[in-house]
Design a protein that fits this description.
About 65% of the residues lie in helices and about 5% in strands. A five-stranded mixed β-sheet has the order 2-1-3-5-4. Helix 1 runs antiparallel to helix 5 and helix 13 packs across helix 14. The protein is globular and about 85 Å long. The termini are far apart.
Length: about 600
């Protein structure tokens, strides 16, 4: 009876934890128009469209590879309806569920592996850790499933630590871990990070504790069997979308630029990226990440110092810290090699305007999926070591000071007018996408971080544990909600209005006119790869959208353009046109199609 009551209580609190984590995310999803980032999101969502039998290859073939393993699972939504509004918000709700499930894993870990029985504390910490995310659940990106997989892998690693002496359970958990890591490769190329970090963990765990964390036969056998199979599925998917003569962006990890970036004369650029990333996540979290860094270093020192008299809890802390920090380090190293040459060039030319490569100085999205468990470890340590945590907060503040001087002197001057570097700092001056860029965004972030750290340390010194947790929760939740309001909704609306009238026009015609299966879209405005044909493909998801204008041999066609500059040329090609709104023009060609439009009262010019 006692176990039944315990399990019932545990399940009840797990449901409460999930709902608290889910409801704010759910509300945010309904604030969004489709979609926030055109090329990235549509190429990512193509996995769902592809497995639903839709052909988006013409549009996606112009973009990059973003995997298919997760979004293929929501392909059923495209089979339920073709309404883009319903599709969009249903998938966002799935993403909100995926992110919120991390709180349940955190709650289970706190109870099962770290023996914390205070349910109120566990509920608060689990919700807080679920909001230790950089990617908000309002966009079709792969970080959402990767965040959940990180928690699943941490959970399995802790199970391996717990059952080191049980060969059967060790084999089972090794098998599950390999299955999830193999599956992650289908989600995104960057998931190779998990493999490198886990192999590093196995090596270091063996060196420190003289134990093999995994079942070697299971690990070797399953890896040899599954990884080539996964690679086969990836190649098959890529070959069905992308032209074999065209290099697929994001399909592999390019380290060819490493030797150039790592030259001694480029050390400053590398330092700018590394310290820029560290300070950006520091500001984003109100300085808590600085405390987390110091706490992790301290725990590793204790684990190494007491390795002969190690406790089971030390083993667990060691494993989580090594695995997640390795993932973070590998991600930052990847940015150094990928964007380092761009930063080197920008510094050499003293570029201070809107320069894309400087994004590497503040881009925390890539290592965002690995931060939640590290925050959990920090809060566990703070609870169990109240005297030490106050001292470590002091050292975190000391470590932060020289980085701020470096940031003020070397980084802020070159990113003040850069629109790609300030998203983590918006909250502190209530800046949004409709305002002019200004350096005050960065200075306010630094000031807030320092004040927040001092306040957090004071709460710990006064033994106001719940208040200290609420402070962290407030800053992370505020970052999430304000980011949706000030950035995500603005971008999404700007994208949505590029195709809203065209979508409504096509839907009205469908009832009375037989339309071609292919619809052409020419973007005369966008200079980057985020062109309007991506949003048209999502809105008109049952049609095959073809980028560009049709050839002269095409006898019947519907073409959307966002300016009137090509009207004379298209009229010479026997197109007639209609202006739908300020940025949407539709051009029609084909005697039969034009006759049908005229019969229902639509008169075109030209």
């Amino acid at each position: 009876m006692k176990n039944i009551n315990y399990n019932y209580r545990k399940i009840k609190y797990a449901i409460i934890v999930f709902l608290i984590a889910f409801v704010p995310r759910m509300i945010c999803t309904f604030l969004m128009d489709p979609v926030k980032v055109l090329m990235d999101e549509i190429c990512t969502l193509n996995g769902a469209a592809y497995f639903a039998g839709l052909d988006w290859s013409n549009v996606v073939g112009e973009g990059s590879y973003y995997g298919f393993g997760f979004y293929a699972l929501v392909s059923f939504i495209f089979k339920i309806t073709d309404n883009p509004y319903i599709i969009y918000h249903l998938i966002l709700l799935v993403l909100a569920v995926v992110q919120s499930l991390t709180s349940v894993f955190c709650f289970n870990i706190l109870l099962k592996f770290f023996n914390i029985k205070e349910y109120r504390w566990c509920v608060i910490v689990s919700v807080i850790c679920s909001y230790m995310v950089v990617s908000r659940a309002i966009a079709f990106v792969n970080e959402h499933p990767l965040i959940l997989i990180t928690w699943i892998l941490v959970w399995l690693i802790l199970l391996l630590c717990k059952y080191q002496s049980d060969k059967r359970k060790k084999a089972i958990y090794t098998l599950l871990l390999i299955l999830f890591m193999t599956y992650s490769l289908l989600i995104h190329t960057r998931a190779i990070t998990y493999w490198i970090a886990f192999l590093l963990l196995v090596i270091l765990y063996g060196l420190v504790y003289r134990k093999c964390l995994i079942s070697i036969p299971v690990f070797t056998g399953i890896t040899i069997a599954l990884v080539p199979l996964g690679q086969y599925f990836i190649k098959n998917y890529q070959s069905s979308i992308w032209d074999s003569t065209k290099a697929i962006v994001n399909a592999s990890i390019d380290i060819s630029a490493t030797s150039q970036v790592l030259k001694a004369e480029n050390l400053k650029a590398i330092l700018d990226i590394v310290l820029g990333e560290i300070n950006t996540i520091g500001v984003y979290t109100g300085g808590i990440s600085y405390i987390a860094i110091v706490v992790c270093i301290y725990i590793l020192f204790i684990c190494l110092k007491e390795k002969k008299n190690n406790t089971e809890e030390n083993n667990k802390l060691f494993a989580v810290i090594i695995f997640c920090n390795a993932c973070v380090g590998i991600s930052i190293a990847g940015m150094v090699t990928s964007w380092g040459n761009g930063v080197i060039y920008g510094l050499a030319k003293n570029i201070t305007y809107d320069y894309y490569s400087y994004k590497a100085l503040t881009y925390i999205r890539y290592f965002g999926p690995y931060l939640g468990p590290l925050l959990m470890i920090t809060l566990i340590f703070a609870k169990k070591n109240r005297n030490e945590i106050c001292c470590l907060c002091f050292w975190a503040i000391l470590a932060m000071i020289p980085i701020q001087f470096y940031w003020l002197e070397n980084i802020i001057p070159i990113i003040t007018q850069n629109s790609t570097t300030n998203s983590a700092f918006m909250l502190f001056t209530l800046w949004n996408e409709n305002k002019e860029l200004e350096s005050g965004v960065y200075y306010a972030g630094i000031m807030f971080m320092v004040l927040f750290l001092i306040m957090y340390k004071w709460c710990l010194s006064c033994k106001k544990e719940v208040v200290s947790l609420m402070l962290i929760g407030c800053i992370l939740l505020s970052q999430y909600i304000y980011g949706v309001y000030a950035l995500d909704t603005v971008w999404a609306k700007e994208n949505f209005i590029q195709a809203d009238s065209g979508y409504e026009w096509i839907k009205k015609l469908e009832k009375n006119v037989k339309l071609p299966e292919k619809i052409y879209v020419k973007d005369n405005v966008a200079v980057s790869h985020h062109k309007s044909y991506y949003i048209y493909q999502f809105m008109l998801n049952r049609y095959t959208v073809v980028p560009g204008e049709p050839g002269e041999e095409v006898e019947e066609a519907i073409l959307f353009e966002n300016t009137d500059i090509n009207i004379p040329m298209l009229q010479n090609m026997e197109f007639k046109y209609l202006q739908l709104d300020e940025n949407e023009y539709v051009f029609i060609k084909g005697d039969e199609l034009l006759r049908e439009l005229q019969n229902i009262g639509i008169n075109l010019e030209g």
